[in-house]
Design brief:
77 residues, alpha+beta, three-stranded antiparallel sheet
């Protein structure tokens, strides 16, 4: 059994569902205010998309963002 996932194609990324701030916050156990507030999103470099005036997130990108933040905040071993 191959444990390495196959590489993502452009089609995979285009078909990825965009989540609301509440959906993303629930999935990542974050306060929804962190994702709903534009100033906080910009300050923390949170990846997001505007669909008209609505803000949406890709779970895959948010998981990568969360992992990157965890690495930055981890004490040096």
């Amino acid at each position: 059994m191959n444990k390495n996932p196959s590489p993502l194609t452009a089609e995979d990324l285009m078909l990825e569902r965009l989540l609301t701030a509440d959906e993303t916050a629930h999935a990542l156990r974050l306060p929804s205010s962190l994702l709903s507030n534009a100033a906080k999103r910009e300050r923390l470099l949170i990846p997001h998309y505007y669909i008209n005036k609505l803000v949406r997130f890709k779970l895959r990108e948010m998981l990568a963002w969360q992992a990157q933040r965890a690495r930055k905040e981890a004490p040096d071993a």
